[in-house]
Each structure stands twice: as C-alpha cells, then as structure tokens.
Task: structure prediction
Amino acid sequence: MNPIVAEYLGTFLLVLMGTGVCANSSLKDTYAHGSNWVLISFGWGLGVFLGVMVAGPASGAHLNPAVTVGLAAAGEFLLIDVPLYIIAQLLGAMTGAFVTWQLFFDHYNRTEDPATVKGTFCTCPAIKNTPRNILSEVVGTFVLIFVVLFIAGPEFSADDHPAVNIGLGSVGALPVALLVVAIGMSLGGLTGYAINPARDLGPRLIHSLVPIKTKGSSDWSYAWIPIVGPVLGAVIAAGVYLLVV
Result:
C-alpha cells in the first residue's frame, strides 16, 4: 500500500471510531447515550489500534501531524515527507467525521444542545483558560510522543549477524492504543485531549460545513490551541528524547 494512502485510511478509521464513540455516548436516543468518559477514552484508544493495524506496515502509522513532526524533529522521519503525511491525515480525519455525521444524522437532529453537537466533532476546554489549555495539550502530546519514541518491536540477533527487528504484527498497535487510553483517562478531562491537530481540525471543518438542525458555532477562536499545543509538545518530546538517548 502507498504510505500516503495508508495514512489517509488509518486516520479515517481513527477519527471514525473516535467521533463515533463521542456521538454514541452524547447524542439523544442512542443506546449508549449517557455513557461515561471511560467509554470515550477506550473508544479513541481502540480507534488508534485499528488505524495503526491498517496503516502501520506501509507508513509507520503516524495518524497525527504531531507524531509526524515529532519523529522528524528526532531525526526518525524525512522532512520532505512531512507535508504529504499531514495532508493525508487531515483528509482522513475529515472523511471519518463526515461518515460519523451521516451515520448519526437522525440523532444529531434530535439533540437540542449545540455544545453537545459540537463536542462530538472537536475539542473544547472544560474551563476556558488559554495558557492552561495550551499547557494541557502540550503535556498530553509530550507524553504521547515521548513514549512513542521508546516503543520498539523485539529484535533477534545472532553471532556475526546484525540485529533484525521482527516486530509484533498487529499486536504492535496495542501499546500505542493503551497509551492513548492512559492519556485520556489521566489528562483528557481538561480540554478533551486532542493531542492531534488533524483529529481536531478535520472534524471541526466538517462541523462548520454540514447542516445540523441545532448546530452552533464551530468556535474557531479556540481552534488554534489543539494545533499549536500538540506541535509544541511533539517538538519538546523530540528534544528531550534526543537529550536523554
């Protein structure tokens, strides 16, 4: 599979499952309506698991511009490939959010609270405090990227032969999925833990474009925070990784 196509498909699956669990737990008259933050954290984590399984063999399954930037800053990814990866991730995220809207169309139109509707697409702070909101995204993404840089498959080596990374196949996606669940459960309640610019910007664009009966503002005044915060967190994580390794 082409790496760019893999990034698109992986991010599509990630955001479809992630926005899907938000819609399933928040929108009126779904069977899962009223479910708690644990379900949402696991939904996003398992969305990562599916995306990494599909995209991993072809592209490395970044699925996140912050991951792409962080790996490039750490010298683990070619700078020339960064823009195409980010474009594929953004388009995949938009497609995933669009399909979620189509699937839950009737439930969107029965949900009367515009903030609830918007919350199934993109993030917003529980308490609006710009410096702390940025810090939340920086720290959450720092944890994501710093740990990802340490995740490696097992190696097999023998005398007089170089070590060969044998990988874990699909199971190799599990540590990253659990990492996302851990971040969501521990730090996610502050801003909704975008920790991924494409995950927030793509669905926010779809929210602004599609017709929903009780749709309110897409809150573009906040939209820069889940872009800048994750990128800063990724660069800091890459710098610390290079320092300690």
Remarks:
- The beta strands are 155-158, 161-165.
- The CA atoms of residues 197 and 227 lie 5 Å apart.
- Residues 153-158, 163-171 have pLDDT under 50 and may be disordered.
